[in-house]
């Protein structure tokens, strides 16, 4: 028997029940079986003689012996209907597998199912913590770029549908003129509010370069499969590539000049390998211009050092500080324990570890033993590679976030303009300049709008189905757009809505605290220095705060009674 073979596993490739059905013949004496239609083009056959072993079968799909656990489990199954014919049983029952490793079926949604589960995206698995934040009147700044927002409310979103031509034009004009729109706390008839509909159009506008309508230029990381097959005449034309890069350099420089003049609050540079976020002085708790790059590699960091760009790795430094603090606490604990048992230790005599920073001193123990000439020491290259092992391991990870501050950001600008590895040399993105995203207009930028559509659905609540209205926003959603939309929904939905946020993961680490918060910065200073940056004053207040989300981003946002809770 197959089960007697040593090392035989009860796993199978095909259900043995199906194999038995193929070897059975119908009993002609049973009219019910004769009248039954053929199943899947093959007649069901009843057993007439002991089945021979199929010489072409393998151990994996061989029939089980009667004494195996699988056979005993099959015996415990409910018998077929009283007709006696296997065809009387449902087809799904005949084909049911008996694999003991069969995965459990997903539980059906119940009354208490979180509305977040209804908006699950298979392309973006999000682990949402069970404990939300405490209710607040404002949610923290989220510097990550969102690819999709799904707002849900018990109130309809009809006010966001079918904008009139005049409302759309007025929204564009309000955006270009940075018009500040202040809505009441609650709007009784949102659909009839022209001010609300114009402000909605205003909040959907962003600026992009380059603009190639047949290509989706965000996100750029991991976009090869999406761009593959699209027309790219510049990929094999070096002259055209130089024209595109020259035009891109002008737009990039224009954005930086606007940022330096505090006429642009921030902008993103999205390459096929990493993303750079430039922020004006006064934002994210910093008194100087900052630029954060993620993810980085050892080669990129080495090239930046060679260009004289001073930068830091905040997450690496934070990890080192934490380890040093834990080490000091362990040392203090050991000292306290040794003093308790009567051992004495004088100040300055404790050594924290055998590791020494100097390369020559690290081999001093060989000289003490007198075998320094007999043991081959590693060369300088091996020592360098050993030291850079940890630095290489963090490549392409959030921990590789690099921070550039002050005048070094201008050096970074020139470095990125002249960096040959900024543009792919092969593949679908070959020769395509990086994407520039900005909340305000700049030279060479093209005005774009986020795509919005309203949806209606039913959700099960307390054994009944209720109407759930939703508003979907798709596109490169920057921090100011998220805050502007929530302010509009606060008034239009009467302070009650929820939102699922889909984050472009490489940008989630931009919420890391830079550790350079200036205590002198306050609201008055920020509003005095950034009055014409194009942002609403409340949005400016939010973005001027120090980031608090760390390496995560907001995944779920909910407002109840005009108070926010969120999950990250």
TrEMBL record:
It is found in: Nucleus. One of its GO terms (cellular component) is nucleus. Residues 1-90 are annotated as: Disordered. One of its GO terms (biological process) is nuclear DNA replication. Transmembrane segments: none annotated. Its main location: nucleus. Keywords: Developmental protein, Nucleus. The keyword Nucleus applies. Residues 31-58 have a biased composition (Low complexity). Belongs to the DONSON family. This is DONS protein. The gene is Donson.
């Amino acid at each position: 028997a197959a089960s007697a073979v040593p090392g035989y596993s009860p796993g199978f490739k095909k259900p043995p029940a199906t194999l038995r059905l193929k070897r059975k013949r119908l009993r002609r004496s049973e009219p019910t079986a004769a009248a039954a239609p053929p199943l899947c083009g093959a007649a069901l056959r009843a057993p007439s003689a002991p089945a021979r072993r199929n010489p072409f079968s393998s151990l994996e799909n061989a029939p089980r012996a009667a004494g195996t656990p699988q056979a005993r489990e099959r015996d415990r199954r409910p018998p077929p209907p009283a007709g006696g014919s296997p065809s009387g049983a449902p087809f799904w029952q005949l084909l049911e597998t008996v694999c003991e490793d069969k995965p459990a079926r997903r539980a059906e949604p119940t009354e208490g199912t979180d509305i977040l589960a209804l908006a699950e995206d298979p392309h973006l698995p999000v682990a949402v913590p069970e404990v939300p934040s405490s209710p607040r009147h404002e949610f923290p700044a989220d510097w990550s770029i969102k690819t999709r927002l799904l707002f849900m409310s018990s109130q309809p979103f009809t006010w966001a549908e079918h904008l009139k031509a005049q409302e759309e034009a007025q929204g564009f004009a309000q955006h270009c003129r940075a018009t500040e729109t202040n809505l009441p706390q609650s709007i009784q008839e949102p659909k009839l509010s022209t001010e609300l509909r114009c402000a909605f159009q205003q909040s959907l506008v962003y600026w992009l370069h380059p603009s190639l309508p047949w290509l989706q230029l965000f996100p750029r990381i991991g976009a090869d499969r999406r761009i593959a097959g699209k027309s790219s005449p510049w990929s094999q034309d070096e002259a055209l590539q130089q024209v595109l890069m020259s035009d891109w350099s002008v737009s990039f420089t224009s954005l930086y000049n606007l940022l330096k003049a505090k006429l642009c609050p921030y902008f993103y540079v999205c390459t096929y390998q990493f993303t750079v976020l430039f922020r004006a002085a006064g934002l994210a708790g910093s008194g100087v211009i900052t630029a954060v790059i993620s993810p980085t590699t050892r080669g990129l960091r080495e090239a930046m050092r060679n260009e004289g760009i001073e930068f830091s790795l905040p997450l690496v430094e934070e990890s080192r500080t934490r380890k040093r603090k834990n080490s000091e606490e362990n040392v203090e604990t050991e000292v306290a324990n040794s003093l308790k048992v009567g051992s004495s230790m004088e100040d300055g005599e404790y050594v924290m570890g055998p590791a020494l920073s100097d390369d020559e001193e690290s081999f001093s123990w060989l000289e003490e033993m007198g075998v320094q000439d007999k043991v081959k020491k590693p060369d300088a290259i091996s020592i360098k590679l050993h030291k850079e092992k940890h630095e290489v391991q963090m490549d392409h990870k959030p921990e590789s976030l690099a921070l550039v501050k002050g005048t070094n950001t201008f050096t970074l600008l020139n470095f990125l303009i002249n960096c040959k590895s900024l543009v792919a040399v092969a593949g679908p993105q070959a020769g395509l300049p990086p994407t520039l995203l900005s909340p305000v207009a700049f030279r060479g930028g093209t005005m774009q709008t986020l795509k919005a559509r309203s949806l209606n659905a039913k959700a099960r609540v307390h054994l009944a189905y209720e109407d759930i209205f939703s508003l979907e926003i798709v596109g490169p959603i920057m921090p100011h757009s998220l805050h502007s939309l929530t302010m509009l929904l606060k008034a239009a939905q009467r302070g009650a809505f929820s939102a699922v946020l889909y984050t472009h993961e490489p940008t989630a680490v931009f919420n890391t605290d830079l550790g350079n918060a200036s205590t002198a910065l306050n609201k008055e200073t920020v509003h005095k220095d950034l009055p014409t940056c194009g942002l609403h004053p409340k949005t400016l207040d939010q973005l001027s705060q120090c980031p608090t989300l760390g390496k995560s981003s907001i995944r779920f946002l909910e407002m109840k009674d005009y108070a926010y809770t969120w999950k990250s």
